[in-house]
Design a protein that fits this description.
The protein is 79% helix and 0% strand. It is mainly α. α1 runs parallel beside α5 and α3 packs antiparallel against α4.
Amino acid sequence: MQLSDPTLLGFVISLGIGLLIGIDRERRKGESPAREAAGVRTYTITALAGAAAGAINSDALMAAVAVGVVGLAGLSYWRSSADDPGLTGEIALVTTALLGMLTMSAPTLAAGAGVVVAVLLYSREGLHRFVRSSLSEAEMRDALIFAGATLVVLPLLPDDPLDPYGVLNLRKIWIVVVLIMAISGGGYIAVRLLGARFGLPVSGFASGFVSSSATIAAMASRVKDTPSLLKPAAAGAVLSTVATIVQLALLLAAVNVEVLAELAIPLALGGLAAVLYGGAFTLWALKHEGQSDDKPGRAFSLAIALTLAATLAVILVASAALQSWLGQAGVVIAAGTAGFADTHSAAVSVASLATAERIDPGQAVLPILVAFSTNTVTKIVLALAGSRVYALSVVPGLVLVAAAAWAGAFLQGVRVF
């Protein structure tokens, strides 16, 4: 019998699951008379018993093993509940038996689930500390909102176009909203984990996933209050544009990969320009004692996400209508106007037109670059609202990024006109 034999493989995986979970429980069960009943040997044997029942493939036997383990876990809890009211050990024992059975039908899934269980058990103190001390009420609310938007709202939305142009698809629009919330949440987590240690450049980059324009405005306000933060604030402001480009690429990849391919060089050059320009200030900023905020806040704004969804829907229909009336020029006008408020909704709208075959992927480049440029104008205005020295530091970088993106379009030879 070789290791590739499914039955033998299942027993090996169940042995590993039992040992992984059992070692953690052995370290925690203590030495007193009130210690937990199950340790490394019990968990390992329980996993193997589940695997044996699964190998025999008898529903009655698997049910008997499961009921027996549940009964023993119940007795263990009754014995120790006065000293330790927690149910983690008992639930882990039952889960170990079930994973042992699963190794015979889905060994890969069982192995992955076993590792997840072991990690959760091992991370007890860290998880408790995070939930009780680090996780704020606002962050918990954001997590629940994101879960509801992803697991409840998204499956209920229709997947058919609702407008006469065939471009307004509620499910696809909501997927973009979920992606925006997820990316914003990722940037927020980066700020919480890395901001205080690495200073304003990293915080600016991470905050750019939430809103690059808002980040530039916030950095301008900081420099007004604390002029000594000019270099790290300028680095964070310009690097937030890198986040804009990364987020734009991710959204385009989700909507239309062909459009992303047409914009590969413009986005790459624009991002490179932002990294190099921001890096010059970062070299000074890394010598500065970073004072980025580490206070809990909001991972994302539901209002902003819904506003972007509404904006996206309006731009989609308007672009399709203008394209029908004015051709390519109509799409450019609609995208450029929307770009003053947000690059991403305009770009996703244009890419959606390409997905609906209203325009070719190559024809999406010009309106997206126009939207990117008009959004740069918005950022420049926000930078000018700060101090004069801040504007002189940030505005050239923003202009350089936009120019690099246009240069990339001409280098790639795409149809910008």
